[in-house]
């Protein structure tokens, strides 16, 4: 996570020529050629790298030698500006200063930095997704500059926050696009595998300005070098990210990394397997299929702990209600999987339905119904699926459903197995990949569940697990990782930095094109 140590891109000569097309009705906005044309350009070899050295190699060497000290100073500066006790006044300029990691080095671009107001020198504000901790302070009063994001996110912030459409520019997915007033920086949006509309941003261009509030300036502004920055926002890392044609085979200078679960304790199971397990469990419960009662801790043995309760269940006819907790935006994939398995409609309130219709998901839209009795799956806020709130919700439909099953999907419900290594080697982490499995038998009801009201904690997150972060970091070329989550203390940053250094050391042992073997393209 060094601030000034930069290793330059190795194929600057392959930048394609631009052609003018329309983005959001602006015919003067140039748009780069499709990715299919980029893939035909060969990468530049070592001889070309030598031609691209910065003109002042002495200054370059000095910045590398000083980078460790400057990194620490930059983080201390960030700690000061992120002080939670800060209140805007005339004396401090009426706005909180943006830490260095919110503004791309040498570019007039800020990402997820709306709470800092009008940032000096920034010409383009990017939003990775429509979660409140990323769009803080964005509202109908926004007038600090153009906002760039995916179409889904654009629809959401206009609908939820009433941001004036004139500021919002939706960009196409998987297509390099030139951004106006940024010194010809191009950006490619890549599906983040987080909530609907979420994206990674791959920025490519020269350093042209020292924008932002940080006192630490780049020595490479004005050079002819091309830089690549991959901003991950929030994401669930998968092989699709490193195999994407915009990333594969290229060296990334800076990776702004979602480090929510950068801790060996959080190696929860692959997302697709958990989704499938929830759908399988719901289908088996709804159909009355027998489950494996040989497992003493399985949910089946718990449900049938006595002959009396078993007979009562048989005697009570009726439908079973599946209640799935979700965020305001996110977790919808579990809802869809369960509804498809049960061949039923999905009910949610009008506010949630309006949010869902902002998203480009015709399959989910077709499932929605306004009648709660017309659906065996209800989509509710995650906070409803708790021991004290689920029962009142289900009681509203008393007499219409024989019992209810609640699913509470969140990564924080994951408990590492007993005896887990808290300080594993990278090799041992990668060895876990084929062993990281999950099925419906791994879902266990909460202790306070009853035969009529069962609640299942589901180890499901839309952030990368530690295992996935390691696989991701080991599967492409990069120079520097910059943590963006859990960076509020020197201790936390130190723990994460330790893993980044281990990834870097292990990655150097691999071939340039090494990718951690994966079981499916959507998970390791």
UniProtKB/TrEMBL annotation:
One of its GO terms (molecular function) is damaged DNA binding. The keyword DNA repair applies. Its main location: nucleus. Residues 12-26, 297-306 have a biased composition (Polar residues). It comes from the Eukaryota. Residues 27-43 have a biased composition (Low complexity). The keyword GTP-binding does not apply. Gene3D superfamilies: 3.40.50.12650, Ribonuclease Z/Hydroxyacylglutathione hydrolase-like. One of its GO terms (biological process) is double-strand break repair via nonhomologous end joining. It is found in: Nucleus. Residues 1-57, 290-311 are annotated as: Disordered. Residues 117-266 form the Metallo-beta-lactamase domain. InterPro entries: DRMBL, Metallo-B-lactamas, RibonucZ/Hydroxyglut_hydro. Residues 362-488 form the DNA repair metallo-beta-lactamase domain. Residues 1-10 have a biased composition (Acidic residues). GO terms for cellular component: nucleus. Keywords: DNA damage, DNA repair, Nucleus. Pfam families: DRMBL, Lactamase_B_2. Belongs to the DNA repair metallo-beta-lactamase (DRMBL) family. This is DRMBL-domain-containing protein.
């Amino acid at each position: 996570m060094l601030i000034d140590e930069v290793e330059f891109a190795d194929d600057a000569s392959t930048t394609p020529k631009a052609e003018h097309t329309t983005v959001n009705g602006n015919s003067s906005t140039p748009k780069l050629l499709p990715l299919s044309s980029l893939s035909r350009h060969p990468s530049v070899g070592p001889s070309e790298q030598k031609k691209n050295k910065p003109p002042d190699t002495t200054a370059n060497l000095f910045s590398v030698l000083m980078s460790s000290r400057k990194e620490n100073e930059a983080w201390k500066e960030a700690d000061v500006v992120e002080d939670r006790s800060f209140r805007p006044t005339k004396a401090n300029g009426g706005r909180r200063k943006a830490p260095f990691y919110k503004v791309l080095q040498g570019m007039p671009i800020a990402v997820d930095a709306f709470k800092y107001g009008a940032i000096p020198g920034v010409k383009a504000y990017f939003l990775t997704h429509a979660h409140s901790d990323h769009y803080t302070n964005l509202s109908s009063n926004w007038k600090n500059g153009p906002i760039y994001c995916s179409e889904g996110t654009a629809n959401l912030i206009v609908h939820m926050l009433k941001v004036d459409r004139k500021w919002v520019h939706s960009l196409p997915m998987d297509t390099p696009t030139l951004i106006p007033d940024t010194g010809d920086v191009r950006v490619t949006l890549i599906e983040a595998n987080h909530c609907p509309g979420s994206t990674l941003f791959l920025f490519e261009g020269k350093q042209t300005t020292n924008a932002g509030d940080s006192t630490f300036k780049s020595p490479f502004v004005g050079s002819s070098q091309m830089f690549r920055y991959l901003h991950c926002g929030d994401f669930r890392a998968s092989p699709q990210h490193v195999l994407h044609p915009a990333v594969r085979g290229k060296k990334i200078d800076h990776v702004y990394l979602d480090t929510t679960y950068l801790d060996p304790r959080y190696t929860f199971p692959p997302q697709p397997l958990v989704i499938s397990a929830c759908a399988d469990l719901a289908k088996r419960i709804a159909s009355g299929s027998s489950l494996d009662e040989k497992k003493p801790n399985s949910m089946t043995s718990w449900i049938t702990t006595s002959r009396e309760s078993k007979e009562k269940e048989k005697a009570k006819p009726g439908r079973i209600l599946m209640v799935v907790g979700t965020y305001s935006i996110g977790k919808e994939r579990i809802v869809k999987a369960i509804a498809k398995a049960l061949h039923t409609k999905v009910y949610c309130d009008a506010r949630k339905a309006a949010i869902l219709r902002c998203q480009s998901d015709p399959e989910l839209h077709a499932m929605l119904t306004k009648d709660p009795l017309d659906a065996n799956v209800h989509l509710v806020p995650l906070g409803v699926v708790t021991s004290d709130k689920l029962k009142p919700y289900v009681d509203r439909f008393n007499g219409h459903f024989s019992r209810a099953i609640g699913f509470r999907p969140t990564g924080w419900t994951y408990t590492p197995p007993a005896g887990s290594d808290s300080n594993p080697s990278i090799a041992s982490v990668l060895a876990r990949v084929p062993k990281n499995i999950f099925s419906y038998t791994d879902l266990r009801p909460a202790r306070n569940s009853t035969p009529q009201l069962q609640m299942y904690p589901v180890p499901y997150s839309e952030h990368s697990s530690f295992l996935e972060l390691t696989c991701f970091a080991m599967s492409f070329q990069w120079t520097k990782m910059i943590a963006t989550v859990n960076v509020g203390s020197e201790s936390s940053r130190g723990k994460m930095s330790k893993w980044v250094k281990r990834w870097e050391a292990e990655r150097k042992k691999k071939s340039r094109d090494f990718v951690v073997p994966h079981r499916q393209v959507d998970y390791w």
